[in-house]
Design a protein that fits this description.
By secondary structure, the chain is an alpha/beta fold. It contains 9 helices and 8 strands. It binds pyridoxal-5'-phosphate. The site of pyridoxal-5'-phosphate has 13 residues, from strand 8 and helix 9.
Length: 223
């Protein structure tokens, strides 16, 4: 199937209240352009270096989402243009995003990444860590970051019940943070959960953003 057909098939499973982030990592700009011409405007990359190379080659109305682990020393390269950072997992990183956003006279929307999978390797905060970070933020105002919600990745497994359990846990974390810290903040509304193999489960469990690559572009070839 062509990219256009794949995209139409994916789109058929995404209700209007859920936003699609097209994950374009490893894909050449021609393929991103093809997806752009189908009307998509949100693209997600997981590496700063790749994002910075692609961004100037593509139309300026694309909304770029950084979805992968971000090191503090690289924030400055994306701060001028990035539309959302999904992977905030420490106070140090948030401080640096605030600093670089201020230098660019911007407010950068961020999601806090939570660790919901069984795997050790996946990044993210525990619920307790997330709450202490937010408690700190409620005293130490960061004017150039806006927390728009949370993100998480399920365990890499075919066990649908396990994925459902993990996404349900992420939704519970969202609800708890919403009532404790953001009850008067309509901007705190996003749950980024679901990739090619599990986005239907993510949507059923309350996702507002899904991040999909393979189901649109086909398998990635890593060099
Ligand atoms: C690569 C990636 C995705 C997309 O994965 P697919 O299985 O290709 O849809 C989503 N989220 C993150 C954080 C990723 O790194």
């Amino acid at each position: 199937m062509s990219i256009k057909e794949n995209l139409a098939e994916v789109r058929r499973h995404i209700p209007d209240h859920v936003e699609l982030v097209v994950v374009s990592k490893t894909m050449p700009v021609e393929k991103l352009q093809e997806v752009y011409e189908c009307g998509e405007r949100k693209f997600g990359e997981n590496k700063v270096q790749e994002l910075v190379l692609k961004q100037p080659l593509l139309p300026s109305d694309i909304h770029w989402h950084l979805i992968g682990h971000l090191q503090s020393n690289k924030v400055k390269f994306i701060a001028p243009f990035v539309d959302m950072i999904h992977s905030v997992d420490s106070l140090k990183l948030l401080e640096e995003i605030n600093r670089q956003a201020a230098r660019n006279h911007r407010i950068i929307p961020c999601l806090l990444q939570f660790h919901i999978a069984e795997e050790e390797t996946k990044f993210g905060l525990s619920e307790v860590e997330g709450k202490s970070l937010l408690a700190y933020l409620s005293h130490e105002y960061f004017p150039n970051v806006a927390i728009h919600g949370i993100m998480g990745m399920a365990t890499f497994t075919t066990d649908i019940e396990q994925i459902t359990r993990e996404f349900r846990h992420l939704k519970q974390i969202f609800d708890s943070l919403k009532s404790e810290f953001f009850s008067n903040d309509p901007d705190f509304r996003h749950i980024s959960m679901g990739m090619s193999d599990d986005f239907e489960i993510g949507i059923a469990e309350g996702a507002t953003l899904v991040r999909i690559g393979t189901r649109i572009f086909g398998e990635r070839q890593y060099q």
